[in-house]
Amino acid sequence: MNTLFLAITAIVLVLLLALVLRPLQEDDEPRQEEEDKRISPLLRGINYLLSDEPDRALQEMVQVARLRSEAADVYMALGEMFRSRGEIGRAVRIHQNLLARPDLAKSIHLQAHMALARDFQTGGLLDRALIQYGKALEIQSDHAGALEASLRIREQSSEWQLAEELLSRLERVRNESYSSHRAYLFSEMARQCLSQESRDEAATYAARAIELDPACAPARMVAIELAMAAAETDKAVTEIQALRSHANEHFSLVIPQLLAHSDFYDNRGRELLAEMWRQQPDAELALSWLEALARERSADDAKVLYHDLGFVPATLRESLRLQAVLGDEGDAHARFSRQWRKRAKNYVCEQCGVEVIDVRWQCPQCHSWGSLHPKSEEKI
Fold first, then answer.
1. Cα–Cα distance, 266 to 269 (Å, whole number)
2. Average pLDDT over residues 331-350
3. 369: three-class secondary structure by DSSP
């Protein structure tokens, strides 16, 4: 049973019961027959809900809507229920019919546009959802819900500049600063420009992101890539050290990047990483280095590095990762470790707790930026 649907249905039924009873209580001479027609479907709906029969409860709600066709609130509630059940088409039709009414109050007009936008967004029709959120903002320009929902859609569509404009509007409405959020948007612009070979623009956006949030790892990585690609060795070293200093938990992500520039890695990168290891032995640094080296070069190179580092795993997760890199193919433990490594969740969101395999700068569940952190332990 969908507990969310049950909760929404319960609230809606109570609300509608109040809506139906209120005009009857205000009538000096209520007619018993009309009262029965209006209340009976609600009572039956509540009974079906308590009996764990949401489908039949919803049928009674439809009957209530027919009896009170003039009440927009009834249709709004019914549309919410259809959406919560995944019946997007029916929810859309209800909200579109509401918007077609010429006598609709401005407040209900706003609610209907917002509801229709959520219908389209839930159904994956993002362009249509944006249109409806835009119409809601035409009615109320400081509607935080419409701004935030539009922002999420722009981010989902990788329209970073439009997302940044919406973030600015949201800051003004809420009178809050979202500098870290904006830094990640700038870093995404930088990465997008880098992929399009627009290096000057990429450098500009990366610098703006770092200025807003020195711990913005993706912006640092763009700056490192630009420096290595331009053969600016000293600048690349400075940026790598800055990443280690400001965003150490994500530092290991730069190692495959260094190996991709083999000249830089052989001439400066390897010794730089070794120096960092000597200064602060770090299991994540050692394991990520071993994994990247085995993947980009060879298992033999990884074994040589392992002996040079003298790394000893301290947790189950570290042991599994090491065995996945160095274990012999004929070893059952090594085979198990490699299978585990392919599906292991490596990052966890500090806000909502969702776990993912690969790094994401924005949480796929709660949409927070910079909230996913590497896992240090593993439960087996």
1. 6
2. 91
3. strand
pLDDT tens per residue, range 230-267: 999 999 999 999 999 999 999 999 999 999 999 999 99
DSSP string, 237-284: HHHHHHHHHH-GGGGGGGHHHHHHSHHHIIIIIHHHHHHHHHHS--HH
| Residue 196 belongs to some domain of the structure | no
Q: Is 95 inside a domain boundary? A: yes
- Domain edge (last residue) among 174, 207, 228: 174
CATH number at residue 77: 1.25.40.10
* 333, part of any domain: no
Sorting pLDDT into bands at 50, 70 and 90, what band is 87? confident
Q: Is a pLDDT exceeding 70 seen at residue 22? A: no
Per the structure, the count of domains in the chain is 2
Q: Enter the pTM of the model.
A: 0.79
Domain residue limits at 44: 3-174
* Confidence tier at 58 by pLDDT (50, 70, 90): low
Query: How far is it, in rounded angstroms, from Cα 166 to Cα 4?
Result: 30
